[in-house]
Design goal:
Distance between the termini: 19 Å
Shape: globular
Helix content: 25-40%
Structural class: alpha/beta
Length: 684
């Protein structure tokens, strides 16, 4: 697995300003080597959302002698230094962000005296995409024609002289939308929400990608990969290109409600306003929302793929191969169709908590055979509290758990290195260096004990068509709060939480709807599980129904909860979504008297690694309670002669193995924060 670092490197005790990241220093590479880092995410050259000349300055700009004194380098030099340590650097493309900043200039407008943080010097003005596209500062920036010799022309054949006016997301009243989550409320700057459905914006983003690749990045990370669907929270998008695209979609899939309507001139926004809808309140029940959602899913797949293909092709034209990734946020179903276009899955989890094993099992299912790097989210979670504890020398076990949890459950939780704390808190997240290096050293030194393959007996189906609406209702707040409505019961979440909190190892199987993402359900994919749980799965495609039928015919057990589909075999079992014994008709694969999370991974040599996470944190002692003499019983596919306990401090203890009717039993002398019990035959 990758060992990622969330490498914004923003300053402590200051706003985490987008889109430009602070200058890099050579000493940072030493820290990354200590972290045993393999890849840096959100790592380099975000300034393209301000202008292309600014981006070139980040990449190749001169560094003065005073800065050199302390090892400051430009981004291309920093990337080269990382390459010397075999560390991959991803260029960050802030796809949804179009920036305007207050600026103070010399009277001749040939020098920037202050930008963003003003100091009362010189001539006031604005600097950003609008000024770049209108060639407002010829003494400071190359003209737009340097990058686009034929100029920029929109979908109606008109020349573009204002990128923001042309490419911004618009609500139903045609008002431009802002990316509020990155605007600092005590600053004058403005970030407009841009729309990748606009071909002009795609051409601009391709120029950003070219500059980043020329600077030597190992890969391109497309942030805000779902745009403009993220603008749903603001009642958007109804710009001209979204409306053109939706018209074409409706002509291809005409709905009965529009029978007799001239679709060639149909405007979805005007049509909704005429019926009293604003696309904000009760959005999911708005007429044609399902069709609009499907259209936008198809669009993000098409245009994300276009940029991914372009990045790879441009790199190859320079004799290089790169990786492509994207920020898939909380891995909602809208991102499923994009997974085929990336080499590395990156997720900025919606809610960062102290315990979320069930979410990580979903992440592992989403990523499949691809590496996944997770970063924390400052909104709607525990990160501000954790940073406060760490600042007081506390919370070390909580931080250890956050990284070990991901590794144990099939993902990688990145080390924060000046990572984002939102637009309000004036600080960034740096973990204590020795704490982080200790965790990373364990993960690197034991990487042979981490794989994506499991031998878990139970699978839980996440049905996109059945579950998407409930998840949308539960997670309805905008992304500056990320609140969850706990009154909305999502049976899938209840089932996976019930299993995870009871030390039941399980896999998640994601069934797409076949419209917004390919439906790849098969009986073969289910065959190895003794039990498959369908929580509130009331909608099935033909392929999914066939998969269940074939699985049951092969001797598998299906357990259903809540609403069910009419295409099920007769011999399925029914369970309450919160009653563990009903969910597990064949009993528990792992029996342990401690409330841990468990996952069983199949190692390359055929051994089995039982990963155990102990969440029993005592806030008074500021430590996870170590549990002595812990008996463990586990069903495994094959008999193993030996067992070894590998603790998170690196110690190893040989365990006596007792076998009874296919069950392996061992006793752990002590169960600390994180332990791996390896069942093997030869030497470990």
């Amino acid at each position: 697995m990758q060992r990622g670092v969330y490498f914004d490197a923003w300053f402590p005790r200051q706003h985490c300003y987008h889109p430009s990241l602070p200058p890099r220093r050579l000493r940072m590479v030493d820290d990354l080597v200590d972290f045993r880092a393999t890849v840096l995410v959100w790592a380099s050259m975000g300034g393209g959302s301000l202008s292309l000349p600014y981006l070139e300055q980040e990449a190749f700009g001169p560094v003065d002698a005073r800065s050199r004194f302390y090892g400051f380098v430009n981004d291309s030099e920093f990337i080269a230094a990382c390459h010397q340590q075999s560390i991959k650097v991803l260029g960050i493309v802030f796809e949804a962000q179009g920036w305007e900043f207050p600026v103070e200039l010399s009277e001749e407008e040939d020098a920037v005296l202050a930008l963003n943080e003003l100091r009362g010097a010189g001539k006031r003005g604005w600097m950003g995409l609008r000024e770049f596209s209108s060639n407002r500062y010829p003494k400071l920036w190359k003209p737009v024609e340097h990058y686009f010799p034929q100029g920029l022309v929109n979908s109606e054949g008109e020349p573009v002289v204002d990128l923001i006016e042309e490419c911004v997301v618009r609500d139903i009243h045609q008002q431009p939308c802002h990316a509020h989550w990155v605007e600092c409320p005590d600053r004058e700057h403005q970030c407009y929400y841009m729309d990748r459905n606009n071909p002009v914006w795609r051409e601009y983003l391709k120029a950003v990608i070219r500059i980043q690749i020329d600077a030597g990045v190992d890969g391109i990370q497309l942030d805000e990969a779902e745009l403009p669907m993220g603008a749903f929270q603001y009642g958007a998008c109804f710009c001209k290109d979204c409306m053109k695209g939706f018209r074409a979609y409706l002509e291809e899939h005409p709905p009965a409600v529009l029978a007799g309507v001239d679709l060639s001139t149909f405007h979805y926004g005007d049509w909704l306003l005429g019926q009293g809808y604003d696309f904000k309140d009760g959005r999911e029940s708005t007429p044609l929302f399902g069709q609009y959602y499907a259209f936008q899913c198809r669009s993000i797949k098409k245009y994300f793929g276009e940029l991914a293909d372009y990045a790879r092709a441009y790199a190859r034209s320079t004799g290089r191969e790169i990786i492509v990734s994207g920020n898939f946020f909380n891995l909602e179903p809208m991102y499923l169709a994009l997974a085929d276009d990336v080499d590395l899955v990156i997720t900025e989890m919606r809610n960062t908590t102290y315990r979320q094993p069930e979410w990580y099992r979903y992440v592992a299912a989403f990523a499949g055979d691809k590496d996944v790097v997770v970063v924390e989210n400052p909104y709607g979670g525990v990160i501000p509290e954790l940073i406060g504890l760490l600042a007081e020398g506390k919370g070390h076990d909580l931080f250890r758990l956050s990284l070990f949890e991901a590794a144990a459950l099939g993902a990688n939780m990145s080390v924060p290195y000046g990572s984002w704390m939102g637009s309000v808190i004036e600080d960034s997240f740096y973990a204590p260096h020795q704490l982080a290096t200790g965790i990373q050293a364990f993960l690197a030194d034991h990487e042979q004990l981490f794989t994506r393959r499991t031998v878990n007996d139970v699978a839980v189906v996440f049905s996109v068509e059945s579950t998407r609406e409930l998840v949308g209702k539960a997670d309805t707040s905008d992304n500056t709060t990320n609140a969850r409505d706990e009154s909305v019961v999502v049976p899938y979440r209840v089932v996976t939480s019930t299993l995870a909190s009871s030390a039941v190892p399980f896999d998640v199987v994601i069934w797409a709807d076949g419209v917004t993402a390919p439906d790849r359900a098969s009986a073969e994919a289910l065959a190895r599980y003794s039990t498959v749980i369908l929580p509130d799965v009331y909608a099935l495609t033909d392929a999914q129904a066939s998969a269940i039928e074939g699985y049951v015919a092969g001797g598998g057990t299906v357990v259903v909860t809540d609403r069910t589909a009419g295409k099920l075999p007769e011999n399925v079992l029914t369970a309450d979504h919160a009653v563990l014994d009903e969910l597990l008709p064949h009993g528990r694969q792992v029996e342990i008297p401690v409330p841990v999370a468990a996952n069983i991974q199949l190692l390359a040599d055929g051994s089995y690694a039982l990963h155990l996470l102990n969440y029993d944190y005592d806030p008074v002692a500021d430590a996870v309670r170590a549990v002595p003499d812990v008996p463990v019983r586990i069903r495994l596919p094959k008999v193993k002669e030996r067992a070894t306990l590998v603790a998170s401090d690196g110690s190893r203890t040989a365990l006596a193995v007792r076998r009874d009717a296919g069950v392996h039993a061992v006793t752990l002398d002590t169960l600390g924060v994180y332990s791996i019990v390896v069942f093997h035959d030869g030497d470990l």
